[in-house]
Write a structure and sequence with these properties.
Number of domains: 1
Distance between the termini: 50 Å
Number of helices: 10
Number of strands: 12
Radius of gyration: 17 Å
Length: 282
């Protein structure tokens, strides 16, 4: 295998978002500033954010991360799909941190160890550590977190391959157990419908966002399985919602929806993007 570098180098800078730090910071700040959100008057437990290139889904992602802008949060769990085939249920990075043009984001190894113990107690397979991954769905969220949050935060990066509901529920419960000792913001990374005409995409997206709004991980998985709705990160969303529920979340606000047609003008084959804020209200 050779020597593993301490930091995972960016796999997408210069393609999915700007390579230049100043330009990336200005772009992300613009999306955060332009977001218009209601007053939540509640604790933000988790977020759902899209993971397309920033020029396509940045406005929607900005609405999700604007809900925690200016907050100091010690760590963030980012759950994302792994778009490439891989023989493991849950994957993390073998590196000690992620590198973006905005700096390094270090992995919280103690929190990962706590999560692994909680997963093992529930009979789940071990988290697999991968050295070479080009996955965009997790990394794409990091610049938003770097610009939205105050100060440094530690990362618990999880790429979810399993779609088994019982395993996803157990993963969510294990995450909630970890949160008791390692408080964190939960972020699920997903896009919505892929490559449908705009009218169809809007219908599919509405179904999936309704399932998320109901705080129903089971319905999210059922909509994806049946084709009534679509989300490439349905498994990541479901695990996050189960964790959020176990951590006391009791409400969801859908704060934005868009499609690639908003940027390209092409309504023939669009990709849908949604942003949601998961809340714990008194």
């Amino acid at each position: 295998m050779g020597v593993i570098s301490e930091l995972r180098p960016s796999a997408i800078a210069g393609r999915w978002y700007p390579r230049e730090a100043d330009l990336l910071a200005r772009t992300v700040d613009y999306y955060l500033t332009e977001a218009r959100l209601p007053e939540f008057d509640a604790e933000v437990v988790g977020l759902v954010a899209p993971h397309a290139g920033h020029i396509y889904s940045g406005a929607t992602a900005g609405h999700a991360f604007a809900s925690v802008r200016g907050k100091k949060i010690p760590r963030v769990v980012v759950l994302a799909p792994l778009h490439a085939p891989y023989p493991a249920e849950v994957i993390t990075s073998a590196h000690q941190g992620y590198q973006t043009p905005l700096g390094s984001v270090w992995i919280d190894q103690a929190a990962l160890t706590s999560l692994e113990r909680a997963m093992q107690a529930r009979g789940l397979p071990a988290i697999h550590r991968v050295v070479r991954d080009g996955e965009h769905a997790l990394e794409i969220e990091l610049p938003f977190l770097q610009r939205a949050l105050v100060g440094r935060f530690q990362l618990v990066p999880l790429m979810v391959r399993t779609h088994q509901p019982d395993h996803l529920r157990a993963l969510g419960e294990a995450l909630a157990e970890m949160l008791a000792d390692f408080p964190a913001l939960l972020v699920a990374s997903t896009d919505l419908s892929h490559f449908f005409p705009l009218e169809t995409a809007n219908r599919l997206d509405a179904v999936m966002l309704a399932c998320i709004a109901e705080l129903s991980p089971q319905r999210v998985l059922e909509a994806e399985a049946s084709g009534a709705g679509q989300a490439c990160g349905a498994a990541a969303v479901a695990a996050m919602l189960w964790a959020a529920q176990a951590a006391g979340a009791n409400a969801v606000e859908i704060v934005h929806h868009s499609t690639s047609a908003d940027q390209t003008g092409d309504e023939r084959e669009v990709v849908g993007y949604g942003a949601a804020v998961i809340l714990k209200r008194p």
